[in-house]
Specification:
Chain C: InterPro entries: 4Fe4S_Fe-S-bd (IPR017896), 4Fe4S_Fe_S_CS (IPR017900), DPD_II (IPR028261), FAD/NAD-bd_sf (IPR036188), FAD/NAD-binding_dom (IPR023753), Helical_ferredxn (IPR009051). Chain C: Keywords: Iron, Iron-sulfur, Metal-binding. Chain C: Pfam families: Fer4_20, Fer4_7, Pyr_redox_2. Chain C: GO terms for molecular function: iron-sulfur cluster binding; metal ion binding; oxidoreductase activity. The structure holds 4 protein chains of 4 kinds. Helix content of chain A is about 30%, strand content about 25%. By secondary structure, chain A is α/β, with parallel strands linked by helices. Chain A has a 5-stranded mixed sheet, with helices on one face. The radius of gyration of chain A is 25 Å and the shape is elongated. Chain D is α/β, with parallel strands linked by helices. Chain D has one domain: Rossmann fold, CATH 3.40.50. In chain D, helix 4 links the parallel strand 4 and strand 5. The N and C termini of chain D lie far apart (about 40 Å). The chains are: A alpha/beta, B alpha+beta, C alpha/beta, D alpha/beta. Chains in contact: A-B, A-C, A-D, B-C, B-D, C-D. The interface between A and C is medium-sized, with 13 and 22 residues.
Chain lengths: ~190, ~375, ~625, ~190
Amino acid sequence: MMSSTNNIGLEEILSSLNQLFEGVSTEKVDPRQYKIITPPEKTIPVLEFLKEKGYSHLSILTCIDWIAEKKFELVYILFNWGTGVTFVVSTYVNRDNPIFYTVKHIWPTAEYYERDVHEFFGVKFEGNENCEKPLILELWNDLPPLRKDFDPLEYSKKHYPDREYQKDAIHEARIIRGDVRGEIDG
Amino acid sequence: MGEVKLFFGPNHPGMHGNFSVHMYVEGDIVVKARPMPGFLHRGFEKLMERRLWYQNVALIPRICVPEPDINEACYAMAIEKIARVEVPERAQWIRMIVLELARIANHLWSFGGIGGPTGMYTSMYWAVADRDRVLDIFEELSGARIYHMYIVPGGVRKDLPPKLEDKIYHLLDYLEAKIPEYETFILKNRILHTRLKGIAKIDTETCLKIGVTGIGLRATGVPYDIRKVDPYLFYDKVEFEVPTATEGDAYARISLKPKEIIQSIRIIRQCLEKMPSGPVNVKIGEGSGLRIRVPRGMAYVHVESTRGEYGYLVVSDGGEKPYRVAVRGASYPQGLYGVEHLLPGTRIDDVPIWLDSMGVCAPEIDR
Amino acid sequence: MPEKSLFAPLIAWKNLFEKPVTIRVPNEKREASPRYRGFHVNDWNKCIGCGTCAKICPTDAIEMVEVPDMKQDYGMKPQRPVIDYGRCSFCAMCVDICTTGSLNMTREYIFVSPNPEDFRFAPTEKGFLKKEPSQIKLGWVRDENSDLLDLDRVWPEVLPAQERVTSFVEFVKAYSKEQAVAEAARCVECGICTDRCPQHMRIPEYIKAIWRDDLKDALKWLLKGLESENYLGANPLSSVCGRVCTHRCEEVCAISHRGEPIAIRWLKRYIVDSIPVEKWYETVVFERVPKGKKVAIVGSGPAGLSAAYFLATLGYEVDIYESLNRPGGVMRYGIPRYRLPDEALDRDIAFIESLGVRIYTGITVGKDIPFQKLREAYDAIFLSTGLVLGRSTKIPGSDHPDVVQALPLLREIRDFLRGDGPEPKIAKRVVVIGGGNVAMDIARSLARLQKMKYGEVNVTVTCLERTFDEMPADKEEIEEAMEEGVKIYPGWGPKEVIFYPDRDSIKGLKCVKCKEVFDENGRFNPKFDESEFCFYDGDMIVEAIGQAPDYSCLPEEWRSKLQFVGNRILTNNLRQTQIPWLFAGGDIVNGPDIIHGIADGYWAARGIDEYLRGTERP
Amino acid sequence: MSNRGNVKIDERTVWEKIADQLRSRSMWMLHYCTGCGAVELPPSMTSRFDLERFGIGPMATPRQADIFLITGYLSVKTLRRVIYTYEKMPDPKYVIGFGSCTINGGIYYDSYATINRLDYYIPVDLYIAGCMPRPEAIFEAFTKLMEMIRKGEANGWKRYKENYEWYKQNQLRSLGEVIIHDEFHE
């Protein structure tokens, strides 16, 4: 699918990324996928730059909780419909006070992705006035659930009781096998 | 005339799936609309972090109920990308067959689904019954009708059962004969024309701006298909066309579905011919299924689902469980942003048509 | 554009003449596909209760529940899976990972009930509908593609027979890290091995630690076992056992039902070999509260060293008396060096000594120091002198000096190899009598010496047992010996030693056919067919047909108070003899191998502790 | 809450018995796709299996529906609507728990967002095991339900009345409050 000119274009983009933006590092995942790690202050300029270069489709905006490093990694996945190349642009924000800036002026859909990330990780996006409205969850009363320190099983046990079976299934199985005599209920 | 607040769904005859749109209407025109997702939220992304790499195979098909295989494919391919595992050729071809069969099944499903809001029930009765024939193939192949759990990291779970190829050929022949009937009998039908033409019209610019992919985009004349643009599996080794339409309305979107089915049939035939014999899976790492570990890394994999770009971002910290999995539901942009900004102006009775033809699929938005 | 067509509806009309698509459920029963993932069946006779299905279950639907009155057997747990169909997602992973293949799925798919209790179910061979097994149609079954177990063992590097027979170098190489992790990844953590191990070592735990590459944790499991339960499962001789253990655990490994068992022994060796012994002490810290009491141990074999280790961790002052020049007993003087190099044993002993245990070598109790002296100087005595006397066939001619006992010869060979003694007599042709591991050890040692000295191997092994399977030696020992050029002829009983007519040297051994080794009661009572006989050439004959204990260290006054079973001392569970302060273990009590000796040492230490704490009470 | 073991004496009048006979032949199933099991309903209702042979059809509004099919897991957000809907349905009404999730949480047993046992919140007359159950199992369930109605055994709606306090208390325990907000947040 990729023509040779596009290949050159890709290399140009990668090298100009390094020249234009200080502190940006790139990593090759495979020939059509690159990861770009940006310092927070450079993220939005990089995204704008890439959009201009044809990486105009925002596939997803999401977040990763690196609890040991006390960081949230915000991930923007950009796709180029012309070349089929994906850029995974990421940046780290402080986990204790997670605030970043909205990109909804670049991609309107980001408004909902940001609401999603806020709901599940608690990252605030400045400039997105709706970002703190609940979206998927309703009347949520605990930690943002996709944070690593949230334990869903514990929450489930506390709020939604399990069934406590009374039946001695092994005894029933032994009757079925003919190991012991007895009657099966049902 | 005053504004009336209306809860459209989740329990509504026009709503497919457990989704809701809250809106203000004036007369029968929608003036404000807000999507209300989350009724099908199960917290997949969290649950996946709690399960072993292999155990997740049982969990993920449920993210998109009508087309589960794309989840398995994305997940498996992302892991293979991180672990740098080469999947045997036969497995790749089988995966393509599975994905295309799923595409056929889901196109038939949504083709049937449009019967509800338009009142054209024939399409529902025909298409859903024909979809069942595809499900019969899936049952033979994977042991279940709906949740196949067949594509696993490293390949597929089992080889094709004996004689299944003949049955697939038989099904393709049947569908090939059936699709023209759909076109003459349903697509050319007056009811469908009246109810779909010019309804829910969207232009290319809007689609690209908000990130609508798949049929929604292709119905505006842009031949963007991930299978062509960023080929995965062996889509670059088969011949097929990307059907497009130019009108960008509901009718254009619906009429593309039979055309895509024809292309899928073409692809499956090529797969069946080109498929070599050989192994169907390799191990990811060493050891038992309980102790699969994926090296540290991150990869994004997307496929072309019936509704557009469907993607998985898989992050591994080198452990026995995924560190983070993020799912990009194909209908996320149109289901949320699209509903809020594009729905106003539509008539109430066209809202289900809008949602259906744009392929708004609640489970993949909610996850 | 919509078409107004008179004929278009005809397409629909033609369906009138086709077979209806409707399946008339429930009048029409449709069978599910041959791969269908329906309700389970589980063959209880095949199932070993390993619980692997419960571990892979992504929905936590399977619970292993104990079955009352189930026959207890090694290699099997008395529990069976109970499936909660309120959880099950019918993914069939339990089927794909089942270690025995007992669990399968059927094509049954209908089950409705108003009572939720009905959905908890223990599948048996009769399935959900309580049908006879022959009437049940199986659905999803595992095949080689869907198998979730890794059936093939990771083999360490092993020197080829031609090369290893030229020296006494340890011929099984240690696992590399990659190999060890890969092998550890095969484990399913069922713990059946732990049940089987005489010392109940925490095998799944240390294997998992290897897999996580947390060797310190692994070492802790080896040397401390279950800390909360008095160090149950610890093994102070891990370097030794990692090489020469009889690995009963591997025989029962759940993986062995369909594949090769986990190489538990080599994984253990990997742990101890990967951490230098100087680091052991800082990794495995014992909090020892001195008890102010002294224990003497007679014999520094596995049981003695093990008892010393556990007693020392409990805070006792321990002295070991060893009559030979070096500690280790059978590990030092019996097992050949190509299987157990001195360095490995030295590591274990060094660690035991670092806990404050004193080992007095070259002191024979009863000769150099009277038993009574020990009795007076110590609060308790542990006797682990082992089997040191060889047995003779007592056939005509066996009193010739060139008819020798295996054990003394092995001892001489090991002393010679480490430079402690002169070269033993190495004959060009040797006949070994015996089918156990000692016979294999001496045969293979002699083969090496012959190869080194004369350039060729000429060792013949003959034994009563009629087949290789019947021989008590480990199968791999037999195979490796034969690879190295040792000829093994099972099924022959020695009749007499044949001499050259003209001189006083051995020509060979005459044997007669052995018809039966054991009588119908299972007792050793060989029967021979005298008409069928054969002759093996040899300049020297080695007898390796068993050993006997030597109780000469024990004065008659005490010996008479003890109870014996055969020639073994009878003790209680805590290895206490009829004399309260005298404990005994190892081959003189239980046998037959090192790991049993270690277990004896462990239980004796607990017994001694109990006894000594009891004596404090007024 | 089991109706086995303590078989009640049939307290119905003759007229009720006749009514139950008639009821069992004409049931409307509420058209509400609560979970993933709903994907097997269109095949059941259309030509392949043809549910209408049993006199069962989909009904848009709860006010006229008899059967409430809970198709699989219920997120708490849906459960609020389900309780609303269930209470809106006229007596007699029957609930079928469809699939493993309704019995004991299914594969979502550890989810923070889904309940584990349905009969803790609303009474359930019949369960179908499977994930998901095939159309044949749905038919088996409907046949069984019809039989239960004829025998007067499908009494979940009565239990809801009798134990209303218990159900309400459980609902509140898991949901906090059974209310429905709109997305405008006005």
